[in-house]
# Entry
Amino acid sequence: EAGVAQSPRYKIIEKRQSVAFWCNPISGHATLYWYQQILGQGPKLLIQFQNNGVVDDSQLPKDRFSAERLKGVDSTLKIQPAKLEDSAVYLCASSLDLGRDKAFFGQGTRLTVV
Amino acid sequence: SQQGEEDPQALSIQEGENATMNCSYKTSINNLQWYRQNSGRGLVHLILIRSNEREKHSGRLRVTLDTSKKSSSLLITASRAADTASYFCAVDNYGQNFVFGPGTRLSVLP
# Structure
């Protein structure tokens, strides 16, 4: 079974630039999550999708972050414009369905904003 | 917030000893899950315990859940150097969201 795929693995950008991350969940997984993990902290949920609908985006900084999951499969997370404090690892995870199953994580994208 | 809070923040033990870490949460949950994260890697699922269960085992892992105290514990028996990692609990709020605590950093010394 293929795992959750994320790209790129690493990204360095200057502040005020824009950046996009891509996630391909495990085939058949209806639920997709994006997390931000700052060094030394636990993952912080940014947004949770069920198929192509948003379940929870209460912690997504909507003035600069956006995410979409067109067709309920792949997802992209965008930051525009980036700030220094956005430096973190961005993790994508998927699970079969809401509230019942374990989540599978990708390797993450390490973003450095300089 | 449903966020789980792990305790202790850091734990250092000798190889062969047992490691216990705890997780507390605030309101009712559907299930609670434990994950491991090796440095620079993604999270790996260890074990899931549902709200109507009290204890589960998986190999050297033992998880307990006390819903009256809103707490869970993860016991790793006969620890190995390879168990060195950060451990996170995550609480599922009936599918509404899935949030993690700050984690326990475990160091197993040879």
User: Anything to note?
Assistant: The radius of gyration of chain B is 13 Å.
